[in-house]
TrEMBL record:
Keywords: Membrane, NAD, NADP, Nucleotide-binding, Translocase, Transmembrane, Transmembrane helix. The chain holds residues 1 to 375 of 458 of the full protein. Its main location: membrane. Transmembrane segments: none annotated. The keyword Metal-binding does not apply. It catalyses: NAD(+) + NADPH + H(+)(in) = NADH + NADP(+) + H(+)(out). GO terms for cellular component: plasma membrane. Belongs to the AlaDH/PNT family. One of its GO terms (biological process) is NADPH regeneration. This is NAD(P) transhydrogenase subunit alpha. Residues 146-310 form the Alanine dehydrogenase/pyridine nucleotide transhydrogenase NAD(H)-binding domain. It comes from Nocardioides exalbidus.
Amino acid sequence: MRIGIPRESRPGETLVAATAKTAAQLAALGYDVVVEAGAGAAADQPDRAFTDAGVQVVTADEVWGSDVVVKVNAPTEAEIASLRSGATVISLMAPARSPELVAQLAAAGVTGLAMDAVPRISRAQSMDVLSSMANVAGYRAVIEAAHEFGRLFTGQVTAAGKVPPARVFVVGAGVAGLAAIGAAGSLGAIVRAFDVRPEVAEQVESMGAQFVTVDMEQEVSSDGYAKEMTAEQEAATAAMYDEEARAADIVITTALIPGRPAPQLVTAETVAAMKPGSVVVDMAAANGGNVAATVTDQRVVTDNGVTVLGYTDLAGRLAAQTSQLYGTNVVNLLKLLTPGKDGVLTLDTDDVIQRGIAVTLARGDSAEVMWPPPP
Ligand code: NAD
């Protein structure tokens, strides 16, 4: 079978679904791999890197005519129309929030596999693009904050006097939050963090940060994700957010609830009470944001001099590495889908990972909607 790697069509996208190295690894699974000219240009993967790795660089039409198309962003309607009936497309799809995409894939008779629907079980960790991207993005959020912040992160004792360390407050200590805690701590900041899952306290503290507690209990579903908070729990945390944000120089928010809009946690009043020169990075901006002042993909400076960053491309700002990690996650998934290492993709819907990512399944000229998977 032929695997095609297209150039991402989303404006400003820097990522590519395969690097020269991972494309060669796909070829080693028996596939004929082709890459669209210029696909990796923004991720330090020039066409030459692919040809040097023995991967053919071809036109968009040739890529979209492949048996399997692997990309980063969900295919657009026009891209779905250029897929062959019976083909497979693998990408991020946010299927829970994209009923139109699911319907378009089904109508086109295409198998759609969502990279972002890989179940959160240990066996699937090597295929988990959300973790790969959140990890890079959490680090980059700190770099963006440090760039905006007009002071040092680390405390210093100089001949001209003492410089206090910056105080960083991280909301949500999942993959992105822990990466942010690590990066901020390594720059010398005092880091405090909060998560509704109390079991992360140990991880936070093992990284040298302080875990902020609120007197409440939070339910966590069996897949390890947080559930939405009740109104009472929200009220209990509101005062804590206000107090922590006022005391912080940098606030990094990462709180997400899968398939739901991001919880609004930091109010406009709290941002208005923050110190001038402080910085907020709202990593939940793509899902509506955790902070009232956030504008998606924008840098906003409030009247009281707080910079609020709503960038949704944080992982893409380290494009070479994120593409390499994404590509490696794809290779690991394709290893699972190619048990014979014979270049033939098979989908075993009895397997929890394969069932989990199956959004549509081509059968004849149409495709069956498989989303959502059974709980
Ligand atoms: P996520 O991106 O869905 O959420 C980020 C964090 O926000 C989570 O820690 C969540 O608890 C927190 N959060 C949600 N609502 C909040 C609120 N109102 N206030 C404060 N915090 C809130 O989650 P994630 O980072 O992708 O991962 C969640 C968990 O799953 C982590 O423990 C992670 O280690 C685990 N995980 C397991 C696997 C695996 O086993 N394959 C893979 C990835 C992640």
